[in-house]
Design goal:
single chain, alpha/beta, nine-stranded mixed β-sheet, binds adenosine-5'-diphosphate, binds zinc ion
Length: about 425
């Protein structure tokens, strides 16, 4: 039987949810207008006053906030509470440039923990579970977020942080961990190490994994599920809107329910800013309606996905977002074609290769080049040059069928690509160095 952490909210009627969001949005806009001069100025410039926002139907009237605003307002410019009422600071991983910082009051931390508790419960977690947290602890939100949620559910929590993979597995066995939380790339690495140690999933007590903080494909999910003998659930979030737990996957494992009592989601056309209907791919925009210290309104995440309000078999009524296919700034334009690393990952894993790969893009003689380094599994490795060349040719053809452009595939010996303990670096775009 499906369990809920907060059934009243997670299964609320759409009508009641709208009412709740309407009330919270109106109050939040007022709070921000009065306490955040940076955003007040944006509203004034757009000619919008708090009185114009009477319900969520008026959301589109508000100005957007972007990462550039956060960098400009760094560090205190978007703070809506006195520092004396804040209890915590976190910072983005800096994947795409200068880090930004976010502030939390105690209520903000409680709200965040509550969102993560819903995610853990949706993955089958209860107070009888042992939850091993192998996301990094520190300024990064992964460790702290899952730690807080795990405590709230009452799981026996193992705050391991990332790294020391053999020790992770040792504790996993000795302390009977049932839930593993980390990035999907680290989960794949742990799965690989389990096999190398001569262990099988039967030697572990794991039943579920909660993996997020970076894009991962369905193919990657199946591969991790097999290597660890678990069900793997996705979790989404970003520092700007607290951290992981903004959205989480349920037993249906097809998209993540957004915690709409705290966050209103919109999908926009990234070029025009126009709001798109459900079912269309676009940039995800979040408005946090309960956060006190760092309440971003209409924040552009740069993550591309689709929203769906189709009925979910788990019984939750919360809107679902699809797995983000990547950030708009992860998208590479190669010889005029839009390419996402996830498309390449899909082909690699479907063709039986490891999820250990790296993409190199460059520009030679005014033409873009695409090189894909892929590691061979030990059983695929061969010292016959011809075999490797044939494999490279076949894989290039499959990738060309997916992307429409010809890559140069390089199959490398096992263990030649550095494993990730946090967010994997999939793309090296050397063209940027020439600019
Ligand atoms: P940074 O933006 O520097 O990486 P964060 O650690 O706050 O800082 O990361 C948030 C970002 O991570 C999101 O905007 C999104 O791009 C990515 N992300 C988080 N969870 C997921 C997920 N489940 N699937 C895909 N991408 C994710
Ligand atoms: Zn569901």
């Amino acid at each position: 039987m499906e369990k809920y952490w907060n059934k009243e909210i997670e299964c609320m009627s759409r009508e009641d949810m709208k009412k709740l969001q309407d009330e919270r949005l109106v109050a939040q806009v007022k709070h921000v207008y009065e306490h955040v001069p940076y955003y007040k100025k944006l509203m004034d410039e757009k000619g919008v006053t708090p009185e114009d926002i009477k319900s969520t139907d008026d959301l589109h009237k508000l100005p957007f906030l972007s990462k550039a605003d956060l960098r400009e307002a760094y560090p205190y410019g978007l703070l809506a509470k006195p520092l004396s009422e804040c209890v915590r600071i976190h910072s983005t991983s800096g994947t795409t440039g200068k880090r930004v910082v976010a502030f939390y009051t105690q209520n903000d931390v409680d709200m965040w923990d509550d969102c993560v508790a819903r995610a853990i419960t949706a993955a089958g977690g209860t107070k009888d579970d042992v939850c091993q947290i192998a996301y990094g602890f520190g300024l990064f939100t992964g460790g702290a977020g899952l730690n807080g949620g795990s405590h709230k559910v009452g799981c026996l929590t193992l705050p391991m942080s990332s790294g020391s993979t053999n020790r992770q597995i040792q504790f996993m066995q000795d302390l009977h961990s049932t839930i593993l939380c980390c990035t999907p790339s680290y989960a794949a690495y742990i799965g690989e190490t389990v096999a190398e140690l001569g262990l099988t999933p039967d030697d572990l007590d794991l039943k579920a994994g909660i993996f997020g903080a970076e894009p991962w494909t369905e193919e990657m999910r199946h591969s991790i599920e097999q290597s660890l003998g678990i069900k793997a659930y996705d979790i989404y979030g970003l520092t700007e809107s607290s951290g992981p737990g903004v959205a989480f996957e349920c037993s249906e494992q097809s998209g993540m329910h957004i915690n709409e009592d705290n966050f209103i989601a919109e999908i926009i056309n990234p070029e025009t800013g126009e709001v798109l209907p459900d079912g269309e791919v676009g940039e995800l925009v979040f408005t946090s309606i309960t956060k006190e210290a760092f309440p971003l309104l209409r924040y552009r995440t740069r993550d591309l996905c689709v929203l769906s309000r189709k009925k979910c078999s788990c019984g939750r009524t919360l809107v679902k977002m699809s797995k983000p296919m990547g950030r708009s700034d992860d998208m590479m334009i190669i010889r005029g074609v839009n390419v996402f690393p996830s498309q390449i990952e899909t082909v690699l894993i479907a063709e039986g290769y490891s999820p250990n790969y790296q993409i190199e893009v460059d520009r030679v003689n005014n033409s873009d080049t695409l090189d894909i380094n892929v590691e061979l599994n030990p059983d695929q490795f061969s010292d016959k040059v011809k075999d490797i060349q044939n494999r490279e040719r076949a894989l290039s053809a499959s990738i060309k069928a997916m992307l429409g452009i010809n890559p140069k595939v390089h199959l490398l010996p096992p263990k030649s690509i550095t494993r990730s303990e946090g967010k994997a670096v999939r793309v090296i775009d050397k063209r940027k160095l020439h600019d």
